[in-house]
UniProtKB/TrEMBL annotation, chain A:
<dbReference type="GO" id="GO:0009055">
    <property type="term" value="F:electron transfer activity"/>
</dbReference>
<dbReference type="Pfam" id="PF00111">
    <property type="entry name" value="Fer2"/>
</dbReference>
<keyword id="KW-0411">Iron-sulfur</keyword>
<comment type="similarity">
    <text>Belongs to the adrenodoxin/putidaredoxin family.</text>
</comment>
<keyword id="KW-0001">2Fe-2S</keyword>
<protein>
    <submittedName>
        <fullName>Ferredoxin, 2Fe-2S</fullName>
    </submittedName>
</protein>
<keyword id="KW-0479">Metal-binding</keyword>
<dbReference type="InterPro" id="IPR036010">
    <property type="entry name" value="2Fe-2S_ferredoxin-like_sf"/>
</dbReference>
<dbReference type="InterPro" id="IPR012675">
    <property type="entry name" value="Beta-grasp_dom_sf"/>
</dbReference>
From TrEMBL, chain B:
<keyword id="KW-0285">Flavoprotein</keyword>
<dbReference type="Pfam" id="PF07992">
    <property type="entry name" value="Pyr_redox_2"/>
</dbReference>
<feature type="domain" description="FAD/NAD(P)-binding">
    <location>
        <begin position="4"/>
        <end position="301"/>
    </location>
</feature>
<dbReference type="InterPro" id="IPR023753">
    <property type="entry name" value="FAD/NAD-binding_dom"/>
</dbReference>
<keyword id="KW-0560">Oxidoreductase</keyword>
<dbReference type="GO" id="GO:0051213">
    <property type="term" value="F:dioxygenase activity"/>
</dbReference>
<protein>
    <submittedName>
        <fullName>3-phenylpropionate/trans-cinnamate dioxygenase ferredoxin reductase subunit</fullName>
    </submittedName>
</protein>
<dbReference type="GO" id="GO:0005737">
    <property type="term" value="C:cytoplasm"/>
</dbReference>
<keyword id="KW-0274">FAD</keyword>
Length: 106, 405
């Protein structure tokens, strides 16, 4: 299974094995990574699964669609590399993905 | 001695409270009692992706099994509470087992209202609340050609959308004169009525079902007017009623929900309630309310857990809701009831629309259809009790962010 590294705001790293086909958000929740709240459960309605995608991975994770981009616009401290992790699907191509968590969600 | 917290109800509120108690540093015993056999799960997909078969069951679980082990949360599934003995601070299960508590959280939710008309117990007449209901509804829809949905609220309309996508003929029968009347203003009702009509749903307003007819299985819904609508499946989705039986039997005040204060505590200092079953005073709106929504369950449970762990916290979040139907996303912030002015943003027929609800100039709610800026800005303005210019709110080209400064 592809490995994904989540790095908390304080630098704590969590390397998890992620099932292909799930979202990156679900991979975090299933592996008890703190800081991914995902209040709406992946409906792209709440912006509480916000992550910053490592620069090296931005091409492979792709760009947010219009609704997601709009949600991100109102997330806590959005940046160029912001994504909602519920909108990124785990694939073999994402083996090694690194994402960082913001200080707060919502 | 180790302190013991018991949580009755393993839905969104109960599960959140258990997790939040640990985050708050509560080190005592936590028991989470669920009547269903399933671990805590998300309900919203049950009328959407899960019902369509587009989401596997294990993707509904709110947390992995390992979470409850790691956090030392005793998950008691398939367990029914028979009564609460407040004098002895004990919860009795229907098996006869008793669980002692120092503090108790009631998070029993709100099951669907039942229809009591003749024929309501015929095969093919369904309700939707839990996984088992959705699992039963999916094959019912797959084997049916004509669905009658009783009630044009969120769940009725969401299931209507799923059924239309699956090719069923769908008639929705609603007692009120418009869809979503209990939760939205007239413009929003009109958007969703147009959306469903465009997808081929027949909407019947001002009509109630007097009986269901059929030989063993439902074959028709008979309206109060006498008209019979032929069907081979029925979903009754006429709202939910708070599950207050245990609280009332234990002598706790109940008035459209278990009555709690702004810290989610009941009049018994050892008992709290949160989520769909709780009737709470909203500081933001200056009145009591009871909400049926995931965000309310999560946020009120967080507040209850903080208070139960000894950190005083007032529950004062802006309520919000969402619904997905066909390719439309509705996001609502605030409560629009009591508005004296509704301002619409977006041209008629536009994909993105919003309705702003004002009371004496103050923004109290927004319904946003495919309009995330309206939702996000609206939520913040509502929290700030702001009085935005109706002219700006109405202008689809306005930069709503300018209202936040």
């Amino acid at each position: 299974m592809p490995k994904i590294t989540f790095i908390e705001n304080d630098g704590t790293e969590h390397v998890v094995e992620a099932e292909v086909g799930l979202s990156v958000m679900e991979a975090a929740v299933r592996n008890m990574v703190p800081g991914i709240d995902a209040d709406c459960g992946g409906a792209c309605a709440c912006a509480t699964c916000h992550v910053y995608v490592d620069e090296a991975w931005r091409d492979k994770t792709g760009k947010p669609e219009a609704m997601e981009e709009s949600m991100l616009d109102f997330a806590y401290e959005p940046k160029e590399n912001s994504r909602l992790s519920c909108q990124i699907t785990v694939s073999e191509a994402l083996d090694g993905l690194v994402v960082r968590l913001p200080e707060f969600q919502g | 001695m180790t302190e013991r917290i018991v949580i009755i109800g393993a839905g969104q509120a109960g599960a959140q409270a258990a997790a939040s108690l640990r985050q708050e540093g509560f080190a005592g015993a936590v028991a989470l009692i669920g009547a269903e056999a399933h671990p805590p799960y998300q309900r919203p997909p049950l009328s959407k992706a899960y019902l369509q078969g587009a989401l596997a069951r294990d993707r509904l679980w709110l947390r992995p099994a390992a979470f409850y082990e790691k956090e030392n949360i005793a998950l008691r599934l398939g367990a029914r509470v028979a009564r609460i003995d407040r004098a002895a601070r004990r919860v009795a299960l229907d098996t006869g087992e008793a669980l002692a508590y120092d503090r108790l959280l009631i998070a029993t939710g709100a099951p669907p209202r039942r229809l009591a008309c003749p024929g309501a117990d015929l095969a093919g007449v369904a309700y939707l609340r839990g996984i088992d209901d959705s699992d039963a509804l999916r094959p019912l829809l797959a084997g049916a050609r004509r669905l009658v949905v009783v009630g044009a609220g969120y769940i009725g309309l969401e299931v209507a959308a799923v059924a239309r996508k699956a090719g069923l003929a769908v008639t929705a029968v609603e007692a009120a004169e418009r869809a979503l009347k209990r939760v939205a203003g007239p413009p929003v009702s009109a958007w969703f009525e147009a959306l469903h009509r465009a997808h081929g749903v027949e909407l019947r307003f001002g009509e109630t079902v007097a009986a269901f007819e059929g030989r063993g299985r439902v074959e028709a819904a008979v309206l109060a007017s006498g008209e019979a609508i032929a069907c081979d499946a029925v979903l009754v989705a006429i709202g939910a009623a708070p599950e207050t039986g245990l609280a009332a039997a234990a002598g706790l005040p109940v008035d459209d929900g278990i009555v709690v204060d702004e810290t989610a505590r009941t009049e018994d200092p050892a008992v709290w309630a949160a989520g769909d079953c709780a009737n709470f005073p909203s500081p933001l709106y200056g009145r009591r309310m009871r909400l049926e929504s995931v965000p309310n369950a999560i946020e009120q449970a967080k507040a209850a857990a903080a208070n139960m762990a000894g950190r005083r916290t007032v529950y004062d979040a802006v309520p919000w809701f969402w619904s997905d139907q066909y390719d439309a996303k509705l996001q609502t912030a605030g409560i629009g009831a009591g508005a004296d002015e509704i301002v619409e943003r977006g041209a008629p027929g536009a994909k993105a629309r919003a309705a702003w609800y004002l009371r004496e100039g103050r923004l109290i709610a927004v319904d946003a259809l495919n309009d995330i800026p309206a939702f996000a800005v609206g939520k913040r303005l509502i929290a700030a009790k702001a009085r935005p210019s109706p002219k700006t709110l109405a202008d689809p080209d306005a930069d709503l962010k300018s209202l936040l400064t």
